[in-house]
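Thanks for the sequence, V.! I ran TetR/AcrR family transcriptional regulator right away. Repeating your input here for the record:
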Amino acid sequence: MTEPPGRRERKKAATRQKIADTALRLFLERGYDAVGIRDVAAEADVAVTTVFAHFASKEALVFERDQDFEQRLTRAVTDRPPHEPLIPALHREVQALVRHCTAEGSAPVRRMIEGSPALREYEESMSLRHAQALAAALAADPHLSRSATACGATARFTIDAYAMACRADDPRATVNEVFQMIEAAWEATAP
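Predicted structure:
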C-alpha cells in the first residue's frame, strides 16, 4: 500500500497544477504564441525558475498530464493480472484516456494544439517517447513472448489509436476499430 503524499509533495503538486491551469487559461485567452513563460509566472505568482522546476518547456505546460499518460499505459501492461490478456487491458486504458481528451471543454485546447507548429511537433515527440516506453514494457514482460518489432509496432499503434480518437467524430468507435486491428496483428505475431 502506498502512503499518502506528505505536506511538501502536496504543496509541490498544487503549485504545479496552479502553473499549468494558469498557463492554459492564458494560452486560450491570448493565444499560445502571445504568452511567454514570464507571463505565466507573473500570473501564477511564482518565479520563472519555479515554472521551469515543474515544466521543461513552454510546450510542456500544455501537455501537463504527459507523465501520467505514459505511466497509465505502461501500468496497463505491468500491473495487469497474470491471466488477463494484454490487448484488452490496453484497449480499456486507451478508452479511459480518450475520455479526458474528448471531455467537455477540450475542443479549444485541441484547436490550439492543431494551430501551433511548435505544439504539434512537441506532441509528436511526446508520442514517440510514449511508444518507446510502452514498447519497453511489452518487451520486458516474460509472458508475452513477442519480438522487439511486434512490441514496437503494437506500442506505436496503441499511441496512434489514442491520437486518432482525440480527433475523431466518434472517439469510442475509432478506438474500438483500431484495437480490432491491433488484436489481429498481435495474435498474428504469436510464437
